[in-house]
Amino acid sequence: MNSLLDARGIGKRFGGVQALKDVSLTIRAGEIYGLIGPNGAGKTTFFNVLTGLYAKDEGEVVFAGVPLKLGSPHEVARAGIARTFQNIRLFANMTALENVMVGRHLRTKVGVGGAVMRFSKAREEEAAIRRRAHELLRYVGVEHHAQKLAKNLAYGDQRRLEIARALATEPKLLALDEPAAGMNATETAELRTLIEGIRADGVTVLLIEHDVKLVMGLCDRVAVLDYGIKIAEDVPDVVKRDPQVVDAYLGAGHG
Ligand SMILES: Nc1ncnc2c1ncn2[C@@H]1O[C@H](COP(=O)(O)OP(=O)(O)OP(=O)(O)O)[C@@H](O)[C@H]1O
């Protein structure tokens, strides 16, 4: 399998805290890749560096064969990486449909300049965006809430809506930060089916998750961070039995 993302020697410090130290990992095209580790291990920091929210101190990322311009969320999104957040970040007072349409606008070709000249073209594009947004809401299973304000959706549906919004940018890589947090067993099972479907439709998935059962059941490969260092990277069956991983994470009541 080809590699989609190659992170090399990523380092990030916050004052005296070395949140990431020389982290290298490779995500292959078409896989579901899990990133796990104890609280404070650096998982979200890795996501934030990867998606341009934090400037890195060291390292580089090659994505789809091209060096990724780290430090710019817009460039990262354009390159084909979309994400969701640990703490849901929707536009609370916009409808579910509008939230997805906003994500979709990243792909819009008609700019502000010439908008009058190309008014009908813009209208066509807007209609296409709306259609696609409806499709995505249906895809994640919340189309019946299209006209509801995001803040009025149930928690699990908000998480699904965030995924729809991320997918609206047509990413090659979808990075999910603790998507199962706060979900009950039924919602988690449905989420698993959704993520498997997303992969089956050709999107590679990077997943941070504390639900070890979900990670081990769903992921093709898993990397483990501990104090900012990658201590393991392998298929779930090997990672599960790695003594260092058991010691740092799985032993402490997580498994
Ligand atoms: N913006 C920040 N400013 C200062 N320190 C930070 C910042 N973000 C993260 N850190 C520190 O970096 C380390 C790694 O944190 P991070 O949130 O990446 O861990 P995590 O593995 O995602 O944890 P969790 O599972 O609890 O979400 C921690 O020591 C944290 O306190």
UniProtKB/TrEMBL annotation:
Single GO molecular function: L-valine transmembrane transporter activity
| Pfam families listed in its UniProt record | ABC_tran (PF00005), BCA_ABC_TP_C (PF12399)
Give a yes or no for keyword Glycosyltransferase in this entry: no
Provide the alphabetized UniProt keywords. ATP-binding, Cell membrane, Membrane, Nucleotide-binding, Transport
Domain ABC transporter per the UniProt entry, residue ranges: 5-252
Q: What CDD domains is this protein classified in?
A: ABC_Mj1267_LivG_branched
State any GO BP term from the record: L-isoleucine import across plasma membrane
Note the InterPro entries from the entry. AAA+_ATPase, ABC_AA/LPS_Transport, ABC_transporter-like_ATP-bd, ABC_transporter-like_CS, BCA_ABC_TP_C, P-loop_NTPase
Alphabetical GO CC annotations of the entry are: plasma membrane
In the UniProt record, does the keyword S-adenosyl-L-methionine occur? no
In Swiss-Prot or TrEMBL terms, this protein is called Amino acid/amide ABC transporter ATP-binding protein 1 (HAAT family)
